[in-house]
């Protein structure tokens, strides 16, 4: 049987500066070259390809010559509650990227645009604190308006991925998977597959019909620590003066251990609150006027 496999969450050099306070002044989210990402994904048996850089499609320019590549990005979005989330948007074009960036801090306008244009999108690492705090009303938005949930992320703990899978099942959402790789070693370590699909169109049709599957690894201390070391090494190659910070590399294992400790507590807290009680079907309140999408030419 034919099968299409795609890592639906992978980053490159063009994901921009690190979002950690102070460190972002000299360090990037990723130093992975898009061509290297593509080659590694091929070696790891992917046969459909995308990049999901943060609020950018610049890294895709060199890959668009490949017929198996499609344009995507990971939007940084402000929720009505004031919290921040990451939304994967898939199979877009350049004009849509511009429109999405204009709307990403107005969730109502963004959801209206995504729905009007029939763009496939997901809420990523839903039980993670990587984008900061959550509010209970955020989950009401996810339940009511988001078609897909990322349920396998190769940098999220197995428990967080398990909670996300349960959420997708209870809410009847499409489950997707991706590595969330910011360094080359993790690329393709989690992915989405659709048995019977032969190309991109059949891949997305299969996802929407419920034939998709997630596969691959969850996150662990050793994997994250290795990736952070790789990013630090590439940072020092690009900006040689940052080699002065090399002695601080000894703290990286402590930082990643503490990160996963916080992640576990965050995931457990919100899983208990969201999954441990009956889900309300009350619709969240629309709080802004959607912006028109008519200026885009399809």
Description:
The protein is of the alpha/beta class. It has a single domain, classed as Alpha-Beta Barrel (TIM Barrel). Helix content is 35%, strand content 14%. It contains eight helices and eight strands. A five-stranded mixed β-sheet has the order 2-3-4-5-6. The radius of gyration is 19 Å and the shape is globular. About 3% of the residues have low confidence.
Average predicted confidence as pLDDT: 93
The overall strand count is 8
Structural class: alpha/beta
Would you give the CATH topology?
TIM Barrel
Q: Give the low-confidence spans.
A: 287-295
In CATH, the architecture is: Alpha-Beta Barrel
SS element count, helices = 8
Strand order, main sheet: write it out.
2-3-4-5-6
Indicate how many domains the architecture comprises: 1
Question: What share of residues are in beta strands?
Answer: 5-15%
Short description:
The protein is an alpha/beta fold and 298 residues long.
């Amino acid at each position: 049987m034919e099968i299409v496999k795609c890592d639906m969450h992978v980053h490159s050099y063009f994901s921009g500066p690190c979002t950690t306070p102070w460190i972002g002044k000299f360090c990037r989210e990723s130093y992975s070259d898009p061509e290297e990402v593509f080659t590694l994904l091929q070696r790891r048996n992917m046969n459909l390809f995308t990049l999901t850089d943060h609020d950018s499609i610049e890294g895709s320019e060199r890959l668009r010559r490949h017929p198996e590549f499609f344009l995507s990005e990971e939007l940084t979005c402000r929720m009505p509650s004031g919290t921040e989330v990451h939304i994967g948007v898939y199979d877009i074009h350049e004009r849509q990227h511009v429109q999405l960036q204009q709307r990403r801090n107005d969730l109502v306008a963004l959801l209206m645009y995504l729905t009007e244009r029939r763009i496939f999108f997901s809420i990523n690492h839903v039980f993670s604190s990587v984008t900061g705090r959550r509010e209970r009303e955020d989950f009401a938005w996810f339940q009511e308006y988001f078609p897909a949930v990322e349920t396998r992320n190769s940098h999220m703990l197995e428990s967080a991925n398990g909670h996300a899978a349960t959420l997708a099942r209870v809410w009847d959402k499409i489950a997707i998977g991706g590595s969330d790789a910011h360094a080359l070693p993790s690329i393709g370590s989690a992915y989405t597959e659709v048995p019977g699909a032969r190309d991109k169109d059949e891949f997305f049709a299969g996802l929407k019909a419920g034939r998709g599957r997630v596969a691959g690894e969850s996150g662990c201390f050793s994997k994250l620590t290795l990736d952070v070391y790789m990013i630090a090494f590439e940072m020092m190659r690009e900006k040689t003066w940052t080699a002065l910070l090399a002695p601080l590399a000894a703290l990286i294992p402590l930082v990643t251990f503490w990160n996963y400790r916080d992640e576990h507590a965050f995931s457990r807290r919100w899983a208990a609150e969201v999954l441990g009680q009956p889900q309300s079907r009350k619709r969240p309140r629309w709080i802004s006027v959607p912006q028109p999408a008519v200026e885009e030419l399809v």
